Amino acid sequence: MKKKTTKTVSLEQGFSQLESIVSEFESGALNLEQAIARFKQGVKLVQQLKQRLQVLENEIKKI
């Protein structure tokens, strides 16, 4: 059975990865299967970044 691992990326890394995904879409070089895979990756990344930003926002509110 595979373990589900969640890799935590920094905000900078995450935004860089998102920019890369957007560039790939803009280039038009992806076939349909690649586009769907990259879209799913982008959605997952956005969710992770949103959670990370929420944690950081809560930490700032405590200050």
UniProtKB/TrEMBL annotation:
The keyword Hydrolase applies. GO terms for molecular function: exodeoxyribonuclease VII activity. Keywords: Cytoplasm, Exonuclease, Hydrolase, Nuclease. Its EC number is 3.1.11.6. SUPFAM superfamilies: XseB-like (SSF116842). It comes from the Bacteria. InterPro entries: Exonuc_VII_S (IPR003761), Exonuc_VII_ssu_sf (IPR037004). GO terms for cellular component: cytosol; exodeoxyribonuclease VII complex. GO terms for biological process: DNA catabolic process. Pfam families: Exonuc_VII_S. Coiled coil: none annotated. Belongs to the XseB family. PANTHER family: EXODEOXYRIBONUCLEASE 7 SMALL SUBUNIT (PTHR34137:SF1). This is Exodeoxyribonuclease VII small subunit.
